[in-house]
Amino acid sequence: MVARGSASVFIGQELCQNGQVINILQTMTTDLGAFHPRYNPTWLTGFPWIMKLRMRVIGNYSPQVVQCRRILLEALTPEIDKRRSCASNNDLNWQRPDDMLQELVENATPPPGQDVYTFIMNQLLFLTFASIHTTTENGTIVLYRLLQNPDVLNELLEEQNDVLRQEVFTTIDPDKQQNGGNPSHVFTADRIKKMTKLDSVCREALRLRSQFYELAHTNVTNQNIVLSNGTVIPPDGDVLINFWHNHHNKKEGKYNDVDSKHIDVNEYDDLAEFKPFRYVNTGYPSTKVGDDYLVFGEGKHACPGRWFAMQEIKTIVSVLIRDYDVRAASDIVFPIGSPGLPFGKVTIVKRNIQ
Ligand code: HEM
Question: Where is heme bound in this sequence (predicted)?
């Protein structure tokens, strides 16, 4: 669902129907991740330079990567040509697509020696790495929290019903014309935005992600960097932020109460607990980064795709719980450590919706 949803925004309505392309978006990151020495061969982790070189060679020349690039290029080239030709001929039957591919077609500035097709494909590959796997993993975490807390799932169903009911009774719905179906069945961005409990559940589920470290940040200068506590980061040294500590430590964060007064989280002893509605009406949506919420990083390079990712996760969760009766069929376990993805047996039965 994430691969197809993302593809429709990245490469457009037509290409997102291409099964081979979707398959690549779906599997590429995990396939390449499997080459990481963390998995095999682990002894290489003691030799960072060899490790980087190996990953560089795999990233450029392994048969999997070469095949992914070939398939993507073959799919993208005719679409890029078609769009360029329609635009330059002022084709009146052509409607400018509202997707990332179109932005790239119009604004691509490939480096010397690289053709525009390869440049666009590389940009899309980068986007794929940053977006699909991350959104899928975090969406999975939210879903497992709901499976572990069926009462919360039911409350979210009530919330979506309330939002949809209000909309249907109070507005003439444009979706009715576009989708030809029951307007109450469409989760538009505006409707998802009104589901404040759902957003709080997502933030709380991601805060409690059972992982220890944020992505490594490397000192790319050729000088030591001295942190305020005296720690020295040498050139090429990595900094790993202890995500777990920040997300569980009472001193790290502050958030607002309903009246927007600042409350020091020091007052709260419950940060190890999953409290689904902790953030409702606090002014802390699931996309707001901070020292106490490092899911999307922080600062200048905080994830720019987080609004899109949360929109996708919330839409997928909403559709799933509406259309299917999903229940845990065993204990749901949240293992601690990396990657720390939850697991457990689940039954999924299609609901009878009118
Ligand atoms: C739940 C899903 C996602 C998570 C958890 C996530 C997390 C992150 C994190 C931790 C970073 C690094 C921030 C840092 O260096 O401190 C990052 C960077 C980035 N993310 Fe995401 N991301 C998600 C989805 C997406 C999506 C959907 C897109 C694109 C549509 C995206 C695009 C990017 C880009 C382009 C960067 C690099 C930003 C920069 O270096 O300036 N991410 N993301």
Answer: 303
